[in-house]
From TrEMBL:
This is Metallo-beta-lactamase domain-containing protein. Its cofactor is Zn(2+). It comes from Streptomyces dioscori. The keyword Zinc applies. InterPro entries: MBL_superfamily_lactonases, RibonucZ/Hydroxyglut_hydro.
C-alpha cells in the first residue's frame, strides 16, 4: 500500500496561497547550467530584496526553543570541519509571526512548529537513538517547552493559528497538528486537529516528491505519518510568494526538491531562515573560527558550507544559499555575519569539541 495519500495530479488540484513573486524564478529551473543559474540568483535576489523591503513589516516575531539534539558533524558542516567530534549539537526553534491583512484581519504563522515527540521516529534519528546508550542520550538531548506550551505562554489560542510553515518536511509528523481521517494505532486514537483552522504551506514539488520517495530521501521522511492526513490541510505554493507585510516564502531547492525559506522584514532589516546551513558563519566561512571552515572555503573557493544530510541536488542547494546570502542584511551585532537565522542552529556543547560556533543569533525578535 502506498503510504502517501496523494499522487502528483491531485496535488496540483489543491488551492494555493499568497502573491507570487515575479522577480524570482525557481533557482533549479532557470535556463542554462548551474553556473548560469548562480549568476541569475544573485541578480534576481537583489531585485527582490529592493521590492520586498517596500512591503512593510509584520507586527511581531517571537522565537521559541524546542529541542537541542545531536547531528553528525559531516552532515552539518559538509566536508569542511576538522573537529574531532563526530557529532555536533543543533537547536530547533519555532518562530511565531503575527501581522494584519489590509482588511484588518489578524494572522498568526508558526514557522517550524515541530512535534518533537513524534519527530524522533524519523528513520535516521530512530536508528541513532536505538544505538545510543541512555546516559549518553541524556547528555546530548535537551527538550524545552512544546509548541502548545509556548503558544499558551504567548497567549495565543491554537484556533487562532492560520498557517504552519516548514522549510521542508524532513522529520515532521503533522498528525496531531492537523488531525487525521482514520484511527492511528501508535497514537491510540484518531487525533483531533490541535490547530483546527491552520493550513500547512508547502511547495507542490515537495508533496509530489513525497508521493514516491527516492532512496536518498528515505532516511529523513516519515511518509506513513501522512497516510491519513487530510489533503485539504495543505496550501501548496509553486515558487516564491509574499504572504503578508514583510513576510515571504522563497523557494530554495536543493536540500530537498521543494525546499523553501522564510524571509521577513524587521526593525533591523531583512532576515532569512532555513536549514540550508546550520550557522550564520557558514554563509561567510572566511570569518569562522570553527576548525577547518575558513581554510576549506578558501582552498575550494566556496562561499558557503552547506548542511548536507541530503545531497539530492547539491549545486541547486549551493545556489539557493547564495540567494539567501543576497537577501539577508548584515547582523547589527557583528556585520561580518548575516541576519540568517538557521531553523536548526549550531549550538556549542562540551560533549562536542571543535564545534562551538564563532557567532550565534539564538533568537529572532521583532516588534513594530
Amino acid at each position: 500500500m502506498q503510504p502517501f495519500p496523494w499522487n502528483t495530479a491531485n496535488v496540483v488540484d489543491l488551492p494555493g496561497i499568497g502573491t507570487p513573486v515575479d522577480s524570482l524564478t525557481d533557482p533549479s529551473r532557470t535556463p542554462g547550467g548551474p553556473g548560469a543559474r548562480l549568476a541569475a540568483v544573485r541578480a534576481e535576489g537583489l531585485a527582490f530584496k529592493r521590492e520586498f523591503a517596500t512591503t512593510g513589516t509584520p507586527d511581531s516575531i517571537t522565537t521559541c526553543d524546542l529541542v537541542t539534539l545531536p547531528y553528525p558533524t559531516r552532515f552539518g558542516l559538509f566536508r569542511a570541519s576538522r573537529a574531532v567530534a563526530p557529532f555536533l549539537s543543533i537547536t530547533n526553534r519555532m518562530l511565531v509571526i503575527r501581522w494584519q491583512e489590509t482588511d484588518g484581519r489578524a494572522r498568526v504563522l508558526l514557522f517550524e512548529p515541530s512535534d518533537v515527540e513524534l519527530g524522533q521516529y524519523t528513520p535516521y534519528f530512530d536508528r541513532l537513538s536505538r544505538r545510543t546508550p541512555a546516559p549518553v542520550a541524556r547528555l546530548m538531548l535537551t527538550r524545552y517547552a512544546t509548541v502548545l506550551e509556548h503558544l499558551a505562554t504567548l497567549g495565543i489560542a491554537p484556533q487562532d493559528v492560520d498557517y504552519l510553515l516548514f522549510d521542508h518536511l524532513h522529520t515532521q509528523d503533522l498528525r496531531r497538528w492537523v488531525g487525521t481521517t482514520a484511527y492511528q494505532q501508535d497514537l491510540g486514537g484518531r487525533p483531533e486537529a490541535a490547530f483546527p483552522n491552520a493550513k500547512v504551506i508547502v511547495q507542490r514539488d515537495e508533496l509530489a516528491g513525497m508521493a514516491e520517495l527516492h532512496p536518498l530521501q528515505k532516511a529523513w521522511y516519515q511518509p506513513a505519518a501522512y497516510r491519513d492526513v487530510p489533503p485539504e490541510a495543505f496550501l501548496p505554493i509553486e515558487g516564491s510568494v509574499v504572504l503578508g507585510p514583510g513576510v515571504a516564502v522563497v523557494k530554495t531547492p536543493g536540500h530537498v526538491f521543494g525546499n523553501q525559506s522564510l524571509v521577513v522584514n524587521t526593525s533591523t532589516g531583512i532576515w532569512v531562515s532555513s536549514e540550508n546551513v546550520i550557522a550564520a558563519e557558514c554563509l561567510t566561512p572566511e570569518h569562522s573560527k570553527l576548525p577547518g571552515l575558513a581554510r576549506w572555503s578558501r582552498e575550494w573557493e566556496y562561499e558557503a558550507v552547506l548542511n548536507a544530510n541530503t545531497i539530492e541536488t547539491t549545486a541547486d542547494q549551493y545556489n539557493s544559499v547564495v540567494l539567501e546570502k543576497t537577501l539577508a542584511d548584515p547582523s547589527q551585532k557583528d556585520p561580518r555575519f548575516l541576519q540568517f537565522f538557521p531553523s536548526s542552529e549550531l549550538t556549542g556543547a562540551w560533549t562536542n569539541p571543535g564545534t562551538k560556533p564563532t557567532f550565534s543569533h539564538r533568537a529572532l525578535t521583532h516588534t513594530r
